[in-house]
Amino acid sequence: DLSSSLSGWAVKFGVSLVALTALLSILRVHHPFLPKDGRSLLKTTHAYVLNTLAGGSFYYFGILNSLAKAFENLSFKVPDRHVFRLQLNIDGLPLFKSSSLQFWPVLGILQECVVKNPFVIALFCGVKKPTPLSEYLDALVKELNNLKDGFVIHGKTFSLKITSVICDAPARAFVKCIKNHTGYSGCDKCVQSGVYSNHRMTFPEINASLRTDESFRQAVDEDHHLGHSPLVESNIGMVSSFPHDYMHLVCLGVVRRLLDLWMSSIGPLQCRLSGHQVKAISERLFVLKGFLAEQVYNNFMLLSVAICILANPSFCLTMNDFANTLLVSFVKHFSKLYGSDFVVYNIHGLIHLSSDVRLHGHLDLISGFPFENYLQKLKKMLRKPHSPLTQVIRRLSEIEAVHS
Q: Each residue of 19-30: pLDDT tens digit?
């Protein structure tokens, strides 16, 4: 009908309430059944209570509420006793250039869904990251523990498994209460003391002993821990469930570092591209062969082939060992080509990537891309600087009403 078409149109194009209400006043001349106010048309919620905690404002949407809604959109009939697989994401999102105000959402993706659409589990808004962490994660940990023994949706009993927590390196260190990736004990996968070289923290060890969920819970490596993470009290594996994020580690980390080394003055002279070569590459399809020095190109191909294997659902497990060999070779040759002082956290992290894929599946399953895209959608929901948390709660209620 006209009402649902209008509300769907308004939500899809982000029409402001002022403009929508003005449109309704015109349409009501010919369609008097339409509501006077845009909020009535969109069924904008006012039934929410914000909590003040961790140095800001906080609202908890909940896992079970989101699961119940996602349940309706699954493309298959979910059997009784099914174990839902949930992936979490925690990250910070600056809201305005002129302000330090930021969101810290907890997002989730139901792995059963073919289309990976994130949903909001919790949302914090403040001028800095939530402190103390225990207040920020308290509701999440409590609900995870409450759901351990199962839950009922539409008369069926289900259980929940957190498959992974996707974070960039700073957020991962924050929620795990460990040293940052620039610290001496900054690698969250293996036990080694970094080497500070040329103003960078490097991790040269290839075969260091690995951290485990149990060693983390017992805080065996005291230098690695800054405190006690609230997530330890849940059933989340504090090492195994925190894979390296393909987007941040490889795409924005290693590849960006390589481009810097090739195109700026920080890299060794024999590895750099001239201005003429950069221009030539930019004017055609991105082809590196013939422009990079042979040893630099061959080193890059080790990375490229390994990532192609690990990103492929058919080959990521059957050729996992081969991909790992390629990545270890890449890191070793990288150190010789560019210097050991460039073997920073992201470069070193490549040697742990294949084991993450063995545990969690191909790289797109442990990627931050869907979460990063959704964060930008959250940001676009803001229409003014005032009360950003309230605005998002209302916009999400409108989206839910349209799709219900």
A: 999 999 999 999
Query: Is there a single domain that holds both residue 252 and residue 286?
Result: yes
- Give the model confidence (pLDDT) of 2-19 as tens digits: 999 999 999 999 999 999
Quick check: helix, strand or coil at residue 103?
A: strand
Q: Taking a C-beta distance cutoff of 8 angstroms, is the pair 394, 44 a contact?
A: yes
Asked whether 288 and 297 are in contact (CB, 8 A), the reply is yes
Determine the structural domain holding residue 398 and report its residue range. Answer: 2-47+384-403
Per-residue confidence at 350, pLDDT binned at 50, 70, 90? very high
**Distance of alpha carbon 28 from alpha carbon 34, whole angstroms:** 6
Separation CA 362–CA 354 (nearest Å): 9
Note the pTM of the prediction, 2 decimals: 0.90
pLDDT for position 172: 97
Strands 156-166 and 83-90: parallel
In a domain, 173, yes or no: no
DSSP result, 15-58: --HHHHHHHHHHHTTT-TTS-SSHHHHHT-------EEETTEEE
Cis check for the bond before 132: say yes or no (omega within 30 of 0).
Answer: yes
Cα(295)–Cα(293) distance, integer angstroms: 6
pLDDT for the residue 82: 87
Q: Distance between CA atoms of 186 and 180, rounded to whole angstroms?
A: 5
